[in-house]
Amino acid sequence: MTLQAQVQSGSSAEPEQRFTDGRISARWFPVFMLLPAILFILVILLFPLVYSLYVSFTPYELLKPNSLKFELARALRNYQRLFADAIFWKSVGNTIVFLFLSINLSYVIALGLSQLLARVTRGQGLMRTLLMVPMMFAPILVGFQFRWFFNANVGLVNNLLFSLGLMQERGQIAWLVDEPLGMFSIIVASIWMNLPVLTIILLAGTLSLPVETFEAADVDGASSWQQFRFITFPLLAPFSYIALTILSLDISRAFDIVRIMTDGGPAHRTELIWTYVTRLAIENTKFGLGSAMSWVTVVLAVAFTLYFFRQLVRSRVVR
Amino acid sequence: MLHKARLLIFILVLMLGTGLAAQDMGEPQYAGLDMDLSGVNIRMANIGGGTYEVMYESISVFEEATGATVEIVALLDGFAIDQKLKVDFATGAADYDVAWDHTSFMAQYTDFLLPLNDFFSEEELAAFSPAIMDAATVDGNLYLIPRHADISPIHYRLDLYESEEIAAEYLAATGEELTVPTTLEQIDRQARFFVENGHSTFGYTLAGREEALTGRFYEMHFASGGSLFNENWEPTFNDDIGVAVAELLRGWYMDSIIPVDTTDLLWDGVAAYFCNGDTAIKLEWYGWYAYFQSPDNCAINHNFGLARGFTGLSVGGDAVRPSGWAGAHAFSIPATAPNPEAGAQLIKFLSSERVAYEEAQLGYLPVRNDVWTRIIDDAAMAENPLDRERLVLAQLQVSEDFKTPPLIAEWIPFSNIFYPHMQAILLGDVSAQDGLDQAAAETREMMADAGYYG
Fold it and tell me: Could you tell me if the ipTM is greater than 0.90?
């Protein structure tokens, strides 16, 4: 039997083995090519995550290097403490309220702005540029700016209210102190910072919608509200979920704002998970406890992102 | 001939003597320039911003005289430099020879610092205020060389205390003369009087957040004879004295004696209320003096006086004493410093009489006795007599009332536990006793974790 005949008949195992080997190599070849990038990601991203998970099971304090050791009997102590810590739960509750109101109000306002902008026939470019201005500010500057706005003594808001005769004495309202004004103030600042990205995405989505649909709705006598309710809003759903997903991932930038405006105070009234982690891990140098809290934050962030992605996929299927 | 020779010798001796005297009484001298450091690169991580950096301009003199080069690897604000030092110490990355330090922060760094006793002679150390050097020493080891200090006198509005009409009104209302307050209870009575009778928007102002609030409570509690911890490091601030102080502050907040945003105020916010004349009395750091006296910045300029810190509440009985929460910015040498001896030379230069005097002229309180003498003499010629009175008073307070927070690494973690509870007490969320008890329980847990109770 010739070699060719053997291959064709498949009676010999040797050529088939070579063929199989070749197929395995072909399958793994892209992996080999991507290996540097994969290793890079593992080192840069995964290792710190796994390491911080490990640290969360230790009593590690930054200035006590010997405390970085795992003991099975004390492994869950950080998590036990957190779950028994009333301030932790308060910060979780505050964070949920902050995220819910900040993201949703940002979305509603951005949606309204995008619809108004879409109808602007002259100077739309200029208005879009002006809209982008808040994006040029670092969050820490936004924090300082709004801290001044809401300052009870020399702040813009109180002085404006006083000048308009809406306040009897200067500095009566402690915006950054009273409940729920403190939370309201940081949400306002956060919304101001969020608006540009959301509005631009929704505006782009609105401008890309098919004109024929609206013309047909006009012919059928649909009102502006009906057109928005039954055409614009549903068709914008993919854009909305992309915008909200980006925002939900980006919202932690608000940490700088909160840190400057209230730093979680007074008396933990505006304490968010981020400010509490900073106090525990950085200021108190309790990295173990801080890492445990950070993992709770990661779980929350993943849950939010999964939710929005699921909605995004669903909206595309519907469309 | 002999007569002429004697005369010449006399003149030479006179000239030499006059020259030495001129050196003693004239120009202040540099130090740390007596070592050849050619080719040595000294690295320094220090506090920066504003007037802090003026001192570093003199480093060129040090470089020229010693042949060393000085590389400033970090100039950060107080919060940021503290974070950098913690991370660098923890990771062994503190590869610099001179590091910023502060009496309030030192205790948490000591494991990562070199004791400085061997680098400085007793004569060199004797130049500094003993109270500050005591605060810089742990178990016989000196960990920092102070740069400048600060402490708080009472600031009060002159127009309120110089008005005969107000004085008569106060006498009628309280039965006592209106004099500059010396006790916390006097401050309470006067502050309430000024507000209730419309003489001042607020009677008192204090910082109400972070370490500033913890420190002010500590100061009032200490002045009233209390102590934050006992000898076994058990928290004791929830005793009768602590509750009395907390209730005093809460009463001030509830009755609008202090501003509605007190719990949001840090030093700049407190200063703003005094600057615009809204506050009758307050305890304030000397460092704000130039700002308050500036006609361009403050309505209160030339309308305030200074007095020694108050003594505390009478609930403390015979143990009451003057307030004196104080601190000093300083220099240390990390244990991992590549050139500790060269670093010590740079510290000698930066803390020398000449450099310290130049910095004191910016308004900082000196920590060297010789510089005190110089700036008090200089101020004798000042147009405003308060300029000199301020310095004399400051020297008295620094030498007699200087009191650091407990020198433990847990001071800042303790403060982070304490101040939110104190804020809750002020805001009326919790009673004074309950709030302090809760803070004490959390503090005890934190101290137990840190190994204080065996």
Answer: no
